[in-house]
């Protein structure tokens, strides 16, 4: 009887230790997640709070996060001077076009590298990875000149001396996207290649036995199984192109797109409001920073809406692809 009681007490102690261990792990995990969330969300919340402040709150040392009087005046001014609807339409059109083309080209290239054996395959894949470490500034001048005097093996010179000027049109983005040489395309090819390599070969063999050709097997059998990879590549392409300033300025200089509109909006608002005779409250870095923060919120708001709708697919895709960091 005594041994049974001792055994019961020992068992209860072990159970309590396990519960305590689980509780400590849960607390540590919660603290870690809260810390990561704070680091990620703090800049965004800070900009949003700042964009709602009236000018006098900028110089009030007692106001940090919550404005004394919430105002949407800055949104109204930034909306007007960014010409937000037209800039949003132009950016959305370019981004969707580029994202879809990059998704199609990178998927085809990745399928070939993952499923077919041919001479130079490893060299081509090495060059694909090499594009990830080449900064775009290194190829800026030759890329610009190539698009400024575009010629296809000397054939187009027969119709226009000196080639065609593609600068200021969508063609530089279209050509780089359909050839898999656009922004971050090396990463997209790598992601899709890993997806296709992880799919069983029996799927293709069964399709071939049923009489399907290469194209039909690719479209009907392989693509449906690679939907998570397709989603993540499209989202990455969309976000990077949306935020891209370098190539958009290089190829579409003078165009009306959100990154360019954001760059100039602070000066335009200050000039319009003050008419060159600004009171002290509307001069200086703080007021300019307030306008820039307001513009940034407007620029990224479509991405936040997109992420809200696609969050579940995005997380599932990241988990299945093994992409972290």
How would the blueprint of this fold be written?
Layout: H1 2-51, H2 55-58, H3 73-82, H4 84-115, H5 121-130, H6 140-148, H7 171-178, H8 185-197, H9 201-209, H10 214-225, H11 227-243, H12 246-251, H13 258-274, H14 285-321
Mean pLDDT: 84
Distance between the termini: 57 Å
User: What sort of overall outline do the alpha carbons produce when their principal axes are compared?
Assistant: flat
Uncertain segments are none
Based on DSSP secondary structure assignment, what is the total number of beta strands?
A: 0
Order of helices and strands: HHHHHHHHHHHHHH
Q: Which class do the helix and strand fractions yield? A: mainly alpha
Major beta sheet, specifics?
A: none
* Count of alpha/pi helices: 14
Oligomeric category: single chain
**Fraction in beta strands:** under 5%
Radius of gyration, taken over Cα atoms and rounded to an integer in Å: 27 Å
Describe what is shown at a glance.
The protein has 325 residues and is an all-alpha fold. The protein is built from 14 helices and no strands. The protein starts with a helix and ends with a helix.
């Amino acid at each position: 009887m005594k041994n049974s009681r001792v055994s019961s007490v020992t068992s209860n102690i072990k159970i309590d230790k396990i519960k305590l261990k689980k509780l400590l792990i849960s607390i540590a995990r919660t603290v870690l997640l809260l810390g990561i969330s704070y680091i990620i969300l703090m800049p965004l919340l800070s900009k949003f709070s700042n964009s709602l402040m009236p000018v006098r709150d900028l110089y009030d040392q007692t106001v940090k996060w919550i404005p004394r009087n919430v105002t949407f005046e800055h949104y109204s001014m930034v909306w007007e001077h960014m010409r937000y609807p037209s800039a949003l339409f132009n950016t959305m059109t370019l981004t969707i076009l580029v994202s879809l083309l990059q998704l199609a080209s990178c998927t085809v290239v990745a399928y070939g590298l993952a499923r077919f054996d041919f001479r130079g395959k490893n060299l081509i894949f090495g060059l694909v990875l090499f594009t990830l470490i080449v900064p775009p500034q290194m190829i800026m001048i030759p890329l610009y000149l190539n698009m400024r005097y575009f010629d296809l093996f000397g054939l187009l010179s027969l119709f226009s001396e000196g080639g065609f000027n593609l600068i200021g049109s969508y063609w530089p983005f279209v050509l780089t996207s359909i050839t898999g040489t656009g922004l971050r395309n090396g990463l997209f090819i790598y992601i899709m290649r890993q997806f296709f390599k992880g799919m069983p070969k029996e799927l293709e063999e069964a399709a071939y036995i049923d009489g399907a050709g290469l194209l039909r097997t690719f479209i009907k059998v392989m693509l449906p199984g690679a939907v998570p990879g397709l989603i993540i590549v499209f989202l990455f392409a969309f976000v990077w192109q949306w935020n891209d300033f370098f190539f958009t300025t290089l190829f579409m200089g003078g165009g009306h797109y959100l990154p360019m509109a954001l760059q100039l909006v602070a000066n335009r608002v200050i000039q319009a409001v003050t008419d060159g005779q600004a009171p002290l409250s509307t001069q200086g870095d703080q007021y300019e920073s307030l306008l820039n923060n307001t513009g940034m919120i407007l620029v990224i708001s479509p991405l936040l809406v997109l992420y809200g709708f696609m969050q579940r697919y995005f997380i599932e895709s990241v988990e299945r692809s093994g992409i972290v960091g």
